[in-house]
Amino acid sequence: MQLFAPSQIASMMRETGFAMDLTPMLGGIMVACALLYAIPATTVLGAIFVTGFLGGAICAHVRLGELGSPPEILSLFLGVMTWGGLYLRDPRIRAILPVS
Prior knowledge:
The chain has helices at about 5-15, 25-40, 45-65, 70-90, 90-95. It is an all-alpha fold. The protein has one domain (about 25-95). α2 packs antiparallel against α3 (about 45-65) and α3 (about 45-65) runs antiparallel to α4.
């Protein structure tokens, strides 16, 4: 969505204090993270980058005093889903993070 900067993204960018000209770059970073996550050889690296990107989004909302806002909760949920999916499909992650 951010690559095309629809009006919803424009309003959220203004609210969080980010310049609109950053939208294509942020969209490109998200696509690159998703591609790294989708390629089996770079999945763990992709998950780390996705987590970092989403952590930055959460940090921006905390800075604005929007603790528990829908975008923040969505970012947290996507981070959990990223690592949850990796945990289910990669035995190396299950070995490092055993859940009993």
